Amino acid sequence: MCQDDHVLTCAILSPLSNGALCQCGGEREAHGSVALGDYFSTAIVNRWDSAQHSSEYPTDAFGELQFTGASKRHSYFLRLSWDTPPSMVYTLMTAHWGLPLPNLVVSVVGGEGRTKVKTWVREVLRQGLVKASQSTGAWILTAGLREGVGRCVGEAVRDHATAASSVSLNKVVALGIAPWGLVDHRQQLVNPQGSFPAKYYVKNMSQDSCCLDNNYQAFLLVDDGSVGRRGGTEFRAKLEDYISHQRTGIWGSGSINIPVLCMLISGEASMLERVDLSLKKSMPWLVLAGSGGLADFLSDVLDNLVDLKDKVAERVKRHFPSEAESDKLVERVTSPVLGLQALSIYQNRDFITIYHGEQEGPNDFDTVLLKALVGASKHRASADASPYNEELKLAVTWNRVDIAKSELFNGDIHWKYEDLEDSMTDALINDKPQFVRLFTENGLNILDYLTYGRLESLYRSVPDGTVLYHLLQRRLVERLGTAENLLTQTFSFVCYPTNPFFQVARVLELLMGDICQPFYYDVLGLEQISSKRRHASKLLRGECLYREKRCLFPWASLFVWSVLQNRSEMATFFWEMTGESVLSALSGCKILRELSKLEAEAENKLSMKELAQKFENVAHDMFSSCYRSNESRSFTLLIRKSPVWGGTTCLQMGMGADARLFFSHDGVQSLLSQIWWGDMKRNTDVWKLLLTFFCPVLCYTNLISFRTDTLLQHNPPPRKQEDQHQGEEKPPKRPFIVSRWREFWFAPVTAFLGNVLMYFLFLLLFAYVLLVDFKPPPPSGPAITEYVLYFWVFTIVCEEIRETFFLGTMTMRQRIRVYIQDVWNNCDLTAIVLFIIGVICRMFTWSYGFGRDVLCVDYMVFTLRLIHIFAIHKQLGPKIIIVGKMMKDIFFFLFFLMVWLMAYGVANQALLYSYDPSLERIFRRVFYRPYLHIFGQIPVEEMDGRFVNNVTLIQSGYEPCRTQYSNWLVVILLIVYLLVTNILLINLLIAMFSSTFSEVQANSDIYWKFQRYTLVVQYHSRPSLAPPFIILSHINLFIKRIIRKVPSIKIHHFVLQLRGKAANKLMTWETIQKEDFLTGQNTIQKSSDSERLKRMSAK
């Protein structure tokens, strides 16, 4: 891009040149032959002009700049012509140089040269301008030279950048715009190919000079063909005007254009034309009265308007005693008063703000900047616009909520919804949660604000480069590719004209998985999940009528939007505002943990994990508050089916989010224990259960105690209200004999106990068949016991099919995905497949042996399945997790072991045997024998064959003789191998095991409580009878559910749907608990030591 810029050089030699110098300021010898040739009459002029008397050629100075001996940081620079389009330069700075987009541009005019800057002006620049610019994310434009005001600004930017952290404050960009011909040592920057970097060396950095200042991030060196002259004001004014028409925020999403303010410090009389030029374009000016020169003159004239020409002349001569053209200056200033042509300095005096910095001080300089810009904006705004709108938009742009609270939201101004709408969008897109909170507290109704169309625009504003943007882009390409066969084209999610809701819904479906129903499908008219691919393309091409509709759950939608972008403070605020606080926190935790798996940047991944853990802690603490308030309602809260989050529950979302801390809460475990024991008391001894299991009549005695306050007695009240409201009758009460029978046999603990006992019998039967009664193929076999085994496995298969395809409301694809994701389901599937293969093979004579081998291996798989059964035990459960994690450690250990084993095995074989064509012996010696060496089996002599040296005999299968001369090297290799494997690797494995054991054992209670939920859900949904008698339960369930259409009652133990008053009461109660929780958190935060120190420092 830099090659498209051009620079100028003087091509005409003026006859008025002073000997060796031309009117352009350059030396006579530096001009071309055309300029030196007096015989060219067209080359002889009386007055030199840059536009007419200079030639243009491509720039020869651009790239990066390194100040040798001063700073390691590189700055960008570009030599360009004075008539270069400002749009090209702005794009270069933001897109190619990577300078952050400004929220404010302050152009410091005047104070150039080696005139000493007053002390109070230095303080205004340091404590006022740079500090205010740092809090707003501003660009500061100066000449960028080490002299006058430019040097002061550079030093102030350097000091503030060193003292302030990049996290808390925005970075100020100091941009130097200087005349190329004025810069000292500029020849060091010349390189037609570009400099990356250019070495810029300055001898004396302490004295003022026209050298470039090393504290600036970028330099624009304006070339008009002159040498040694101060200029470049025309290009600078055009650049300021162009920037003032660009939008703030991400991708220009802000509510206002970038505010540009010119700041006049001192200045010569010639700068009056510069002020006049900017004022004609409604550019606001801030004049530092008392800084000298033109600044004092303008403040004097505007503060004391006079109508006498001689008094103005006195002021001109007082402020510019050395000016030769003071009379002309008097004419320009006094012409409006005398009725001549109106000058913009007088007509646009409302765009000029006089600042008496010597009296006011630099502390409130940011407010001064805001007032100056607001004053100018008010005169540019329409008459019907609110006079405070521009001030609010500037405060939002600068992210100065303190100014907004003190000046705009102090109770004196009545804000309308229309006044806050654009600023709210700006605050949301550019991540300013404090303003979002301020607007919602001062009249902005979120129900009126958030429509589906505006929510779409928020998703379109996602910055590129984020993981959310890539996910949305990928879903867009998939939709266009599958529906319209446009995979070869490139699309932008932000610029694509159709709605992005389908892509958002697909991304949320990817992140949330099968825990809840897909988001926004009802809005798009895609409620039928199975047909969405077929109808999506046709439907989404039509008119989007939903965009004007209000968002059904606005706070939850904004919460999801902020969580997807990993905006911590914004997401926390939206969580505070949304309902179903426990479930919302768990949902945020789930989304963030899934996003962290897809994030490539380590820093972003860590921040996502931290925010996910924060939401899990919030869910845990919030539920603690609810549990302390009301135990029964807190249980209902855990199993309540949410209409906001796709019909899921807190327990389901917590399981999907891997929220171990949440499941370790006593309230969650109390509910699980209550469901696990059913109507029996939790302190019932196991031996009583076993005795009653084998003698069911004992359930009618007092051997087992039953509760009266069951879970089903906690939950039905809202259901009774609903049933009465719907006019349904109360179901009849069962007789004692039937009810007590159901209370014992329908408890999950009874089903678990029966399955454990029957599974042990199954393993005994399987072992008996393999060891004693495994008959030959038909017609001699199989035996009766083997047929019983086949039927037993058949009932197990039936139960697996029921659990996979006949539970829940998920689609077939989702059911299969959930089934495969479980490790123990894979174990069951492997065991069943192996059993089927083994049974088929054993039925034929040619594969009888192979079938028996498969069944033997299958018995091992069925036996390992016992591990999962003991996960319910408080001591054995964590040990199972430890074993699982240690298996991962073993794989890493085996990798290192195989490296050393192969290295030693191959070398040992090659050294001992010079020739051996037998692959079987080679494999045994290279892998198997070194593996036995680890356990101490080191054979001194070979005892398994005859040794020969004949090649023919060796090829026929004889054992070759050993090579004797390399035995000493083999011994050394053996020593090294045993040292590494037996001492280093084995101890490394032990250390890894110890680390895993310590990690899990420290949190064993949390791990056990988390995995306990899965086991409780599994046996709660199982029939009372265990295989093989479970076939009777399957027949009974088929008759009740399929034929008689009787709904299940046990499902309400884990999923309860509330409507009407019951749902409203629970929601109100949870909201009150959240308010109490937030109040307590704020009290703790205010009382902390850090907050005390902050308040003391603020005072």
From TrEMBL:
<feature type="domain" description="Ion transport">
    <location>
        <begin position="759"/>
        <end position="1004"/>
    </location>
</feature>
<dbReference type="InterPro" id="IPR005821">
    <property type="entry name" value="Ion_trans_dom"/>
</dbReference>
<feature type="transmembrane region" description="Helical">
    <location>
        <begin position="889"/>
        <end position="907"/>
    </location>
</feature>
<dbReference type="GO" id="GO:0005886">
    <property type="term" value="C:plasma membrane"/>
</dbReference>
<feature type="transmembrane region" description="Helical">
    <location>
        <begin position="968"/>
        <end position="990"/>
    </location>
</feature>
<dbReference type="InterPro" id="IPR050927">
    <property type="entry name" value="TRPM"/>
</dbReference>
<dbReference type="InterPro" id="IPR041491">
    <property type="entry name" value="TRPM_SLOG"/>
</dbReference>
<keyword id="KW-1133">Transmembrane helix</keyword>
<keyword id="KW-0407">Ion channel</keyword>
<dbReference type="Pfam" id="PF25508">
    <property type="entry name" value="TRPM2"/>
</dbReference>
<feature type="transmembrane region" description="Helical">
    <location>
        <begin position="829"/>
        <end position="847"/>
    </location>
</feature>
<feature type="domain" description="TRPM-like">
    <location>
        <begin position="407"/>
        <end position="665"/>
    </location>
</feature>
<protein>
    <submittedName>
        <fullName>Transient receptor potential cation channel, subfamily M, member 4b, tandem duplicate 1</fullName>
    </submittedName>
</protein>
<feature type="transmembrane region" description="Helical">
    <location>
        <begin position="686"/>
        <end position="706"/>
    </location>
</feature>
<keyword id="KW-0472">Membrane</keyword>
<keyword id="KW-0813">Transport</keyword>
<dbReference type="InterPro" id="IPR057366">
    <property type="entry name" value="TRPM-like"/>
</dbReference>
<dbReference type="GO" id="GO:0099604">
    <property type="term" value="F:ligand-gated calcium channel activity"/>
</dbReference>
<keyword id="KW-0406">Ion transport</keyword>
<feature type="domain" description="TRPM SLOG">
    <location>
        <begin position="76"/>
        <end position="317"/>
    </location>
</feature>
<keyword id="KW-0812">Transmembrane</keyword>
<feature type="transmembrane region" description="Helical">
    <location>
        <begin position="859"/>
        <end position="877"/>
    </location>
</feature>
<dbReference type="GO" id="GO:0005227">
    <property type="term" value="F:calcium-activated cation channel activity"/>
</dbReference>
<dbReference type="Pfam" id="PF00520">
    <property type="entry name" value="Ion_trans"/>
</dbReference>
<feature type="transmembrane region" description="Helical">
    <location>
        <begin position="789"/>
        <end position="808"/>
    </location>
</feature>
<dbReference type="Pfam" id="PF18139">
    <property type="entry name" value="LSDAT_euk"/>
</dbReference>
<feature type="transmembrane region" description="Helical">
    <location>
        <begin position="744"/>
        <end position="769"/>
    </location>
</feature>
